Amino acid sequence: MSNPNNLNINMRGTAQWGLLQRELFWAPNEGKHPPFNTHPDKLRALAKERLSESGWLYASSNAGLSWTHYANRQAFYRHQIVPRTLVDTNNRDTMTQIFGRDAAAPIGFAPIGINRIYHPTGELSPARVAGELGLPYCLSSAGSCSIEDAAAANDQGGSNASRKCETEGSRERGKREGDAIRFYQLYWSPNDAVTLSMLERAAGNGYAALILTTDTWQLGWRHDDVARGNYAFYHEHGAGDLGLSDPAFLETLSPEEQEKKNAREHGHAFSWDRLSWLMEQWRRVSGGKPFCLKGVQSTADARRAADMGVDGIVVSNHAGRQVDGAVGSLDALEKIVDAVGNKIYIMFDSGVRTGADVFKALALGAKFIFIGRLWVYGLGCAGEEGVRHVVKSLLAEFDILMNVAGYPSIQDISRDALESMPRGAYFPSTPELA
Length: 434
Prior knowledge:
- The protein is of the alpha/beta class and 434 residues long.
- The chain has a single domain, classed as Alpha-Beta Barrel (TIM Barrel).
- The chain has 16 helices and 12 strands.
- 50% of the residues are buried.
């Protein structure tokens, strides 16, 4: 059990996340209970029960037959953790750095659009919780709130955490006012004026990096969404509040589209020859802040990104929502780390469900891990409280795993921590973890 009076607590850079387990074990004595069970299967089932049908399908649908989604989960199974014993883990720490900023754990909020289909508070809830916990938050340019409002909520969360630390006399780093870390994810518009306007707003509102998503020029074929015509931008959420708050974007709409808050802009694919322009524009308006690519699965693409001076990449297959039958993202990570691991900052997402998954991705060479469906399901189940409960539980699980497996710091987690089976080693039949 985590010890609230651990003599090493003042040497730790973050909260003792594992204390949440102790609190929840004691809670029934005070008539308290958590809002829900965070087991991924049960969280998913509860989200399906509580979300609208359209919200549920948009959150859970995968491309085609979901083979890429299964490949993501399969890849995690074939890597197994090798626990160490008689290791002093009393002084363990989850603190890490991303682009020179302290983060309370190597875990961040992946960019997910139109959050108001999951809860009326939309992006404000995850942004606020991320600030509270000292974790990076990435706002999607398909968001249902503005760049400015998400930034304000993120700062509010960071300020609340700062005041709490001062009240409790905590020495935690990464939770002082102004320490909220946020990134802006861009879906690249074919209209340069719109792109520049979005970049300027993000830079002006404290977004510390730009992450360009490169795998979603068009939505993948998702059977259930197609069958229901389930595309929120054509219906109740129109062009998205983030877009509708941008004057350059509004100028691209007809009067009818502005009145109906509806824009039917289809995908436009860009290539490497335009990337230098976008990097230059972001670095100009932001004062040289990092520029990253999301959606990298190919070692050739990773090498090209590094050669072009991209600061970071997110190894991701969009959680299996774009290309059916694609390589598992964790399998791609291994090869990409071998190819460019010493040249570029490598992040990871797709298929992460547990603290063990975070551990395995770190062991294979990722420096930072983004989660998506976990916090979205939490948002759909119980709003801001649900997001907070899911993410604090994941932090506790990861912290406890480091303790019981004998790895006191992030730096200790390497490939030596894993025993890996060959690809094709199938995991036992379990309920689907979407």
